[in-house]
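Single-chain item
Fold in token form
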Amino acid sequence: TGRTNPEIMREVERGLERRMSSVMSQSFENAGGVQAVAEMLNVSDRATERSLMESLGNEDAELVDEIRRLMFVFEDINKFSDKDIQLVLKNVETSQWALALKGCSESLRLKVFGNLSTRAADSLREEMEYLVPVKLSAVEQTQQQIVDIIRRLQDSGELVINNNQEEEEMIT
């Protein structure tokens, strides 16, 4: 249970690659656009995603950036383990968190605060309180900067994002 026949997986991968190549060759509007590509890649494994993104990147680097931005959104941090959130916290400035958390869900805010020391959490709360009203676009831009940091951590192998939200089988 929970295992898939390797031949079925290869067939799914071939189907995904065919669909991706047809998406790339058609106009994006007709194929569902960049969002459709991002959604397909979100459910593919990291190796398939990486190879497709690399080959696409050779043709259109800006398009790859646009797809990547749609694949992972700021609120997805809520799905991270405490260990992963702590890694992200180390790589993001407190001032960025203060602004980014202004426009997020309460559950994500609590998860971030819960992974800080009491002193750091108090400092972040204080910084958030003293922030003047800010434009939504500024909050979204800061959230995107944090997402970009997460993508860099992912690309360097320091952070592994399991988009399928299933625990991978561990070999002992």
In short: Residues 6-25 form the longest helix (20 residues). The mean pLDDT is 80.
